[in-house]
Amino acid sequence: MNRPRQKGFALALTLALFPPLIAGILVGFSSLGFIQNDLALKFQCRQEGLQSQNQVRPLLTTLLSLNPLASALKVQSLAAAKELSAAIASLNPIAISTATSHYNQIKEKRGRLDQKQKQLIKESNKLLRHSHRLTAQSLRRTGHQSSNILLETKLLSVRGQAPELAVRPDSPDIAPTYSPAPNFEETQALAHEWQYQVQVHAPFSQFLKGTFQFKKACAVTLTKEGSEWLPKIIKGRFSSKSVW
Q1: Most confidently modeled of 114-123, 188-197, 212-221?
Q2: Residue 146 near residue 37 (C-beta atoms within 8 A)
Q3: CA–CA separation, 108 vs 114, rounded Å?
Q4: Contact call for residues 168 and 179 (beta carbons, < 8 A)
Q5: 19: Cα separation from own chain's centroid
Q6: 184-202: pLDDT as tens digits
Q7: Which of 3, 44, 62, 133 is exposed most, by the fewest CB atoms within 10 A?
Q8: Which residues contact 173 (CB under 8 A, 6 or more apart)?
């Protein structure tokens, strides 16, 4: 007599537990997908930044390695200018011709060096702009593909400005010496910040209502370690601790 009742009770209990069980499974899989997408966004940002800074690294190294030559040519230019002034004052045509030729040779060398320096900076800036643009596009693309059966993810914004090679000349003259700018790591960083919101799809929204917003960020720069410049992941210019 009790066996049918027990079977009926077990069936009723199973039916009662079935919806929460399915909901729990959906929540688990959807949450896992959300975490995977969040990690994918960070990975894309960091990976692209590391690759780009690794390409910029030899350009920066070459630029700074030209400083001894720039300093030597500057000293030679000052000496040649002084020599030319003395020759002009002497009114000696041969001395003037010789001094002028020497001064022009130094000037030409400085001009070629200046072009090489500017080309290195131009190439670095081009790489940084290209990388920053590609990363922003990747973040938007992945962010718009992050929704699943339970959660609707909407990318609200992607912020950040492409940096330029963070160096400064010692003077406005041609072929100056270059040094890392103050706050080099932050100024050099390829930094992005993105914000997105998450909502629960119906009919699951009756169990978990509301809209949740998240801010994330990443930044990759170059840092000096010994005699080498190496890519490095940092917190960057977005100072909020919640975005890291």
Answers
A1: 114-123
A2: yes
A3: 10
A4: yes
A5: 46
A6: 999 999 999 998 887 776 6
A7: 3
A8: 74
> What is the rounded CA–CA span in Å between residue 70 and residue 126?
24
**Residue range 13-52, pLDDT digits in tens:** 454 544 555 455 445 544 555 566 677 788 889 999 999 9
pTM (two decimals): 0.79
Contacts of 181 (CB under 8 A, 6+ apart): 166, 167, 168, 187, 188
Residue 143: partners with Cβ closer than 8 Å, 6 or more residues away: 41, 153, 155, 158, 194, 196
The tokens of 238 are what?
Answer: 């977005």
Residue with tokens 């003037």: 96
Which bin fits 121, alpha (ψ -120 to 50), beta or left (φ > 0)?
Answer: alpha
DSSP-derived secondary structure for 110-176: HHHHHHHHHHHHHHHHHHHHHHHHHHHHHHHHHHHT---SSEEEEEEEEE-------EEESSSSSS-
Of residues 63, 55, 66, 57, the one with CA closest to residue 222: 57
- The Cα-based distances of 127 to 49, 133, 134, 164, 181 in angstroms read 10, 10, 11, 9, 19
Residue 100's SS3 state is helix
Residue for token pair 């800036």: 125
CA angle at 205 for the pair 203 and 37, rounded to the nearest 5°? 105
Q: Work out the number of other CB atoms within 10 angstroms of the CB of residue 135.
A: 26
